[in-house]
Write a structure and sequence with these properties.
The protein is of the alpha+beta class. The chain is built from seven helices and nine strands; from the N terminus they run H-E-E-H-H-E-H-H-E-E-H-E-E-E-E-H. The chain has one domain: Muramoyl-pentapeptide Carboxypeptidase, domain 2 (2-Layer Sandwich).
Length: about 250
């Protein structure tokens, strides 16, 4: 029987479809409904620094990070699909951070897999209603930065033992993982917790600029008047940067 091979092929096809959909989403950004941001359409890789409430300038309108960008990573195809679905500024940072991690640590026996990236509202609600108590606790009530393509959860992988490194081993996520993600302005807490309730979530990373900000406090930027997500709103909260090795 060849079920494992068939399953692997299905995952590969699914990942390629996800990447194609992400590319089309970029091309369609800056709709008439967001006239203020209408100049931001296209696949944006930032090349100009911007601050709060200042539109970001982009170039390389249809660039994408293919699986080959991640070298010999065991999870290259999976990660490419997850990362290419992130908000373009966050995508740029995460792609560079994952590549940096793989380049340095794969020979030492470690790899990294993007467990979760962008989530739809429906996916967020499903997590909030999960039968798993830990999942319910971690999934934010209401909107999450994941819903804006601005947050990731990762799993570190021990290549020598063939197992994922549990989140309980916090030092891996606040140590070797944080070293690479913080270099590209992606943040997690050194104690591995999040929120006022100090939920243990060391594998959760958000852009540095969002630290201390809540979605509610930034609702006038992040949400349309009817409460739906403004696909371009996050541009005004993040600083665009150019990183070496950007794929075009």
């Amino acid at each position: 029987m060849s079920w494992p091979l068939a399953s692997s092929r299905m995952e590969e096809v699914g990942a390629k479809v996800t990447q194609a959909n992400a590319k089309m989403k970029d091309i369609n950004r800056g709709s008439a409904a967001n006239a203020l941001d209408s100049g931001l359409a296209g696949r944006p890789i930032p090349n100009a620094v911007s601050r709060d409430k200042v539109a970001v300038t982009y170039n390389d309108a249809n660039a994408i990070y293919p699986e080959s960008f991640y070298g010999q990573s065991k999870f290259a195809l999976h990660n490419a699909a997850k990362i290419n679905d992130l908000h373009p500024i966050v995508r740029d940072r995460v792609a560079q951070a994952v590549k940096s991690f793989v380049d340095e640590h794969r020979e030492q026996g470690y790899d990294v897999k993007i467990l979760s990236g962008r989530r739809s509202i429906a996916q967020q609600r499903a997590l909030q209603n999960s039968s798993n108590a830990v999942t319910r606790q971690v999934a934010a009530r209401g909107l999450s930065w994941h819903n804006f393509g601005a947050a990731i959860d990762i799993n570190l992988y021990d290549l020598k033992r063939g197992v994922f490194i549990p989140r309980a081993r916090i030092s891996y996520y606040t140590g070797i993982a944080r070293k690479h993600f913080s270099k590209y302005d992606m943040f997690n807490r050194l104690d591995g917790t999040w929120g006022a309730s100090r939920i243990r979530d060391p594998n959760h990373f958000i852009p540095t600029e969002l630290w201390g900000k809540s979605i509610r406090s930034q609702a006038n930027v992040l949400l349309n008047s009817n409460g739906t997500i403004n696909e371009n709103g996050l541009d005004r909260l993040l600083a665009g940067r150019s990183y070496s090795g950007v794929v075009t």
